[in-house]
Amino acid sequence: MRRRLRQLRRMAAAATRPAMWRSGLVVPTTWWDGHPNFGDDLTPWLLPEYGVAPVHRVARSARLSGVGSILEFLPEEYDGAVWGSGLMYGQPHPLPRAKVLAVRGHLTRDLIGAPEDVALGDPGILVARRSPRPRVRWDVALVPHGHHRQHEPFMSMADASGLRVHVVNVHQPAARVVREIAAADAVVTTSLHGLVTADAYGIPASWTMLEPPLSGGPFKFHDYESVITPGSSRFTAFDERRGLAGMLEGASAAPSATVEHACQGLERSIARLAEVLPGLRMFPLGVLGVLAGRG
Fold this sequence. Notes:
With 295 residues, the protein is of the alpha/beta class. Helix content is 36%, strand content 14%. It has helices at residues 2-14, 18-23, 38-46, 106-112, 127-130, 152-155, 157-160, 174-182, 192-200, 219-228, 243-249, 256-270, 273-276, 287-291; strands spanning 25-30, 52-56, 64-65, 81-85, 99-103, 119-120, 140-143, 165-167, 187-189, 205-207, 281-282. Helix 3 (38-46) crosses helix 8 (174-182). The chain is globular and about 60 Å long. The two termini are 19 Å apart.
């Protein structure tokens, strides 16, 4: 029942986007929906901007794979579309029948056997097109992954630096988290989409790894940075003694040219969805059928 209510709220929100009324599609889509997390919430938040109303489905029943490290969930025979998704682990996961519109990075592209000319980038890089940057309120946004909110040395940097530091709770809707990150002059994060959001707005950022380690380790960061900062990384090893000052030394903004190139590729690729998946239901008439599981 809760999931059905979330679906209805998402459909209502999608109906406010002009693109849905011009040529909108209702698409069974997979993304991680197990608990609130802004990176996963980017799929239903962003897609209506491009005329796609995603209705959540488990991977085996989906026709589109959205934002996140979710490709391992897709079975080998999956023949739907992939848009900006990535792998969690650096292991081969061939998807020979998938219609790959875009993937997160070079590493994922090679490991799933996607064409070399496929669009590359995490769709989270599009958030600045969805939400203008608010006025700056903080010197630094600390964006811990949900696994790291109890990491005391990392969290204590918020109080020990003498700067205006805001700790961002990633277990909020995408719109709220994006605004909070965008309202900072710099970002330090252990969340991939904290880094992606900073890059979307041209905010200097650095990322680090903490205990407990994330599933897949740094693979998803390296995959993403292979597109946005090829040949370099904003990774900075966490050193409690150097604190926030040490983390900020490794912060830099992503090159605007690579960000723009990724954005353009992602937008062009999602515009091809109806071409690669003919027979999709049109919005709004297709809403009830897909919500009922008939498509």
